[in-house]
Amino acid sequence: MDVVIENLPRYLEGFTVTVLLLVVSGLAALVLGTIVAAMRISPVGTLRGVATVYTEIIRNTPLTLVLFFCALILPYLGSRLPYTVAATVALAVYTSPFVAEALRSGINGVPVGQAEAARSLGFGFGQSVTLVIFPQAFRMTIPPLINVFIALTKNTSVAGGFFVVELFTVGKELANANGDAVIAVLLGVATFYLLITVPLGLLAAQLERKWVVQR
Amino acid sequence: MTGASVLFDAPGPKARRRSLIFSIIAGVLVVAALGWMFLTLNAPKESGGITLPGMFDASRWDIYADPEIWSFIIFQGVWGTLRAAIVAAVLAIIIGVLFSLLRSAETAWIRIPTAVVIEFFRGMPVLLMMLFILLVGSTGQYWAVVWALAVYNGALIGEALRAGLVSLPRGQREAGLSLGMRPLQSKMLVEFPQAFRQMLPIIVAQLVVLLKDTSLGYIVGYQELLRVTLNNLSSFYGNRYLFSLFVITWLLYLAMNLSLSWFARWLARRGDRRLRPAKGGPLPEDPSQAILVAQANAAARQSEDNSSR
């Protein structure tokens, strides 16, 4: 326990990097994922095909492999990106299909009659999506999106394996330095992760319970 | 084309023409990109081209035809990954069954601590758990990977199974009890088999996650596919094969994961449709979502029962 309190500044340093990774790559994944989701429901067959292939391929690639590519293969091919930036890009790309699937499940949850009504009022694709479908899909999308960000929080630890000094790396270093208090050190790291994931999980469950019943 | 997207397809010649134009543009772009790759990537550096040290370089194609390299990749790498994934999957299902039974117990003294333990395992990165077992348990890399994956996925599978138990009609339990079974017997013999069968697609989808997560063994030093191909082989043959080896590794992971996730989707299509969130929508891979869908369905069914009485 003393080890954790003594090293609190280092924990907080790592925690800051973790939160930074989470926020930046989360926002980037949100943007990318929205584009992919829009492509997947668009009337143009080519766009749908490209988005489907992208989703399938990225979803079935391990995150470790994506990070390996960004941290070790890209520099080998001549990229000069700092590791933190490369890791952020990797996390964003890896998370984007999950965001897209969450958005799509929300959109698919809107009854078909709503889209038919929008069409019969003469709305085009853009209008029926922004005025009728999205406002209804949004509330069903939030809980699964929160789950995606919980997974992203945990996934930032993988970046720690590829030269990014964040919470996991700090924990590993502290555990190596304090061989007699490994359990306390690692439980400290776990607490910081739980500090993000558990409240988010409770929020998601709460919102979902509320909205599932209303539907 | 699924769900609501059907409706955005304005039928008629205009949409067809637009689709055709987009297809042509996409085709031209793909051809241009491939042409650019082959023209510039293999050009000598002096003329301004980038020499990609890998699959586009004809002198490095020999690696794809070398049976020794392939046997090393398959018997060390793929086998290392599958060995961990299969043992962890079996353990995860056993742990999941235990968790779901304990968490749906009547006694609060069993239920609440189990819930806390499950939340702890779910909220913590698997990688951290691997490190924990490696440093505290001194089990060696293989068992660290296996146990971390088993416990993490066991917690998630347990939640999925609990969703299955929640979604069953209450009559199933009553039927078991009225046949003279004890509550535990009724749960094990009547309710649980149904819940398991119903949740099989979600469990298999979770096993895809498990298979992907074995690659975390790379970071803690376990000899799995990623480590064997990209560390051992590239340090043996030199870095010039790094990119080719990366492509091989990627394709092998895709082959394993895609076949498993298509199997999950096939199971879901042919199985019970009660738990699917919406027509054409993706599977609720996250068990916490599955629970809420199941609860909503159970509530809806109960109100139907009440109104029909």
UniProtKB/TrEMBL annotation, chain A:
Which keywords are on file for this protein?
Amino-acid transport, Cell membrane, Membrane, Transmembrane, Transmembrane helix, Transport
List membrane-spanning regions: 12-37, 57-74, 81-100, 145-169, 181-205
Q: How does it sit in the membrane?
A: Multi-pass membrane protein
Report the domain of life of the source organism. Answer: Bacteria
Q: What is its main location?
A: membrane
Q: Where is the signal peptide?
A: none
Biological process, per Gene Ontology:
amino acid transport
**Where does the record place it?**
Cell membrane
- InterPro entries documented for this protein: AA_ABC_transptr_permease_3TM (IPR010065), ArtM/GltK/GlnP/TcyL/YhdX-like (IPR043429), MetI-like (IPR000515), MetI-like_sf (IPR035906)
Q: Name one GO cellular component term.
A: ATP-binding cassette (ABC) transporter complex
Residues in ABC transmembrane type-1 domain copies:
15-204
GO molecular function annotations of the record: transmembrane transporter activity
Concerning SUPFAM superfamilies, the annotation shows:
MetI-like (SSF161098)
Instruction: Please give the family membership noted in the entry.
Output: Belongs to the binding-protein-dependent transport system permease family. HisMQ subfamily.
Q: Which NCBIfam families match?
A: HEQRo_perm_3TM (TIGR01726)
Q: Which PANTHER family match?
A: AMINO-ACID ABC TRANSPORTER PERMEASE PROTEIN YHDX-RELATED, MEMBRANE COMPONENT OF AMINO ACID ABC TRANSPORTER
Quote the protein name from its UniProt record: Amino acid ABC transporter permease
Source organism (scientific name): Agromyces aureus
Automatic annotation (TrEMBL), chain B:
Q: Where in the cell is it found?
A: Cell membrane
On whether Transmembrane is a keyword of this UniProt record, the answer is yes
Can you quote a single GO CC term? ATP-binding cassette (ABC) transporter complex
**Annotated GO MF terms:** transmembrane transporter activity
So where does this one cross the membrane?
A: 20-39, 69-102, 114-136, 142-161, 199-221, 241-264
Membrane topology type: Multi-pass membrane protein
Q: Output the superkingdom of the source species.
A: Bacteria
Q: Where is the ABC transmembrane type-1 domain?
A: 78-264
Keywords noted in UniProt: Cell membrane, Membrane, Transmembrane, Transmembrane helix, Transport
Glycoprotein as UniProt keyword: no
Record-linked CDD domains: TM_PBP2 (cd06261)
Q: Name one GO biological process term.
A: amino acid transport
Similarity-based family: Belongs to the binding-protein-dependent transport system permease family.
Q: Which NCBIfam families match?
A: HEQRo_perm_3TM (TIGR01726)
What name goes with this protein?
Polar amino acid ABC transporter permease
Annotated organism of origin: Agromyces aureus
